[in-house]
Amino acid sequence: MPWIYLIAAGLFEIGWPVGLKLSQTPGRLGLGLTVAVACMATSVMLLWLAQKTIPIGTAYAVWTGIGAAGTFTVGILFYGDSASAMRLVSLGLIVAGIIGLKLAHGPG
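The structure assignment produced for this chain is given below.
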């Protein structure tokens, strides 16, 4: 269950920068900030739950990695961010690091 909390926390971590970006759209300030704050609060709560059993260094690295990789992907898919080869290789390194930390932690 802690890994489910951690993955969910990472997914909510994607929501707050997306909310901040949305708040920059004319007429969407309130909606964007509401999304950002709600996602931040949910993400931190789920991270707190995950850290009850997952070591802090692993939990934090996986949490930020999911957030960074997810936000990067949203930027490419919805905001026209560059998808150059170097950026995609770098994203692959982040994902490989997340997987490596999970494998190093062991089952459970």
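Interim note for the steering committee: The chain has one domain: 2-105. Residues 2-105 form one domain.
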